[in-house]
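User:
I study polymers; will you set down one protein's sequence and C-alpha cells?

Assistant:
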Amino acid sequence: MKLTKEQPVTTAIIFVGGRGTRMGDLTENEPKPGLKVLDKPIIGWIIEQLPLEITDVITVLGYKGKMIRALLGDEYDGRNIRYVWQNPPNSGTFGAAKSVFVELGDAFPERVLFLNGDDIIRQSALKKLLRERMGVLTVIDPTPEKFGVVSRSRNGRLLGIEEQPVRPRSH
C-alpha cells in the first residue's frame, strides 16, 4: 500500500500512560493528563484542539488509566473514544505505539496522528501537520536533555530521535 496525502487522517492516538514523575506530588493521586488547567483536564484541551476531521481517538492507558477512562467515557467533544492498555506497562512511547498495533492488527488506520497526553498543541499547527504525507511536530527547547533531540537531513527528512540525551548533540 502506498501512503498518500489524499487518505484523510480521522484517528488520533494519544499516549496517556506515563507516570508524570517530573510533576512530583501533583500526579500522586491524579494522572498527568487529568490535571486541570483553567478548570479543564489537559486531555480535554488536547482533544478539543484536534482538527474536526479527527472523529476517533484511541488513548493508550497506563498509570491511573481507569481515571482517564472515567473522565472521557466513550465520547468526548463529539469524538469516539477507544482505549488500549499499554502492554507491558511502563514500556515508553515505542511500547505504547506497539500496544496499539498489536491490539488493532489489520484494523490499524492507514494514517494516524500520534500525540502525547501532556502536550496541548494549537489546532492550526495540527491542521498544517495533517496536510503532509508524514510529519513530526517539534519545538525548540533550551534544555533538550529533559526531553530529546530530533535529527533531520538538509531536506527535512527525519533521521532519528534521541530521548533525554545526557549530552545533546544540538537543540
